[in-house]
Amino acid sequence: MSTPSRIKRITAPELAARKGGEPIAVLTAYTAPMAQFLDEHVDCLLVGDSLGMVVYGFDTTLPVTLDMMINHGAAVVRGSERACVIVDMPFGSYQESAEQAYRNAARMMQETGCDGVKLEAGVAMASTIEFLAQRGIPVMGHIGLMPQSVNTYGGFRVQGKDTTVARQVIDDARAVADAGAFSIVVEGVMEPVAREITQIVAVPTIGIGASVECDGQVLVTEDLVGMFSDFTPKFVKRYAELGDELGKAAAAYAEDVRARRFPSAEYCFGAPKTDGAEVRQLKP
Ligand code: KIV
């Protein structure tokens, strides 16, 4: 019998209970090693379909498939033990009907071991959220700028600048919360709109390009550490420049290879050391 893990994962209901309390820190993770680095520091790891752009180099999130999300979701679950893992349902995997959404979300939960799924959803998807939530699937909603709808917006645009759209986003938030979502990502909306939503709904709001008044915040990790692109959206604070560090490391390595400085004896098996002694092989 295996020893039960001493560390208990944070659950979706525990995150929901943080409404109005200690802010919830969320970062994206797409791989097991990244999940390992982030796990002890954040409350929730989001396997976002942003991986289509960040990892696969697509222009939008639309080409991302359910199988891609399942593979990355399972890797993040394997690489973490404490954070609540939520996986995005990709474009086309849940919009057709509540039954389609349930079938695919259940597959996501079974094959990844994740703690819940995220849907880009407003009023139009509220009945689907209700269907899932009442059947054992914790759902994180996502309103405001919904990247899977980029073609209907005609580009990635901040939502809620005019009052009609602001009202729609607020209606979306109400509908998603009433349908049983345990929390709601509020993306790319005007600050006063995000603040109002946070005051109105009974579940935690997780802001991205929204408001410091949200109950939590999420960023794409590669944006946070300067590893995605030269363009940094206004809402991203870069906490490190790992892309630059990676470039420096690659340049130093290539220089060593070209000068035959790497691999020196200490990185070889059985190579004579400069003092004549032989480096012992670890395995014969
Ligand atoms: O796909 C994603 O990473 C997301 C977050 C940016 C909220 O939806």
CATH topology type of the largest domain: TIM Barrel
Q: Can you tell me the number of structural domains? A: 2
**CA(first)-CA(last) distance:** 35 Å
CATH H-level homologous superfamily name of the largest domain: Phosphoenolpyruvate-binding domains
- The computed structural class is alpha/beta
Short description:
The chain is an alpha/beta fold. The protein is 37% helix and 13% strand.
Describe the 3D structure:
By secondary structure, the chain is an alpha/beta fold. The chain folds into 2 domains: 12-240, TIM Barrel (Alpha-Beta Barrel), CATH 3.20.20; 241-284, no CATH class. The chain has 11 helices and 8 strands. The protein has helices at residues 12-16, 32-38, 51-54, 66-78, 98-112, 126-133, 150-153, 163-179, 191-200, 221-224, 242-258; strands spanning 24-28, 44-47, 84-88, 116-120, 139-144, 183-187, 205-208, 216-219. It has an 8-stranded parallel beta barrel with strand order 1-2-3-4-5-6-7-8, surrounded by 5 helices. Helix 6 (126-133) runs parallel beside helix 8 (163-179) and helix 8 (163-179) packs parallel to helix 9 (191-200). The longest helix has 17 residues, at 163-179. It is globular. The mean pLDDT is 93. The protein binds 3-methyl-2-oxobutanoic acid. 3-methyl-2-oxobutanoic acid (KIV) binds next to strand 6.
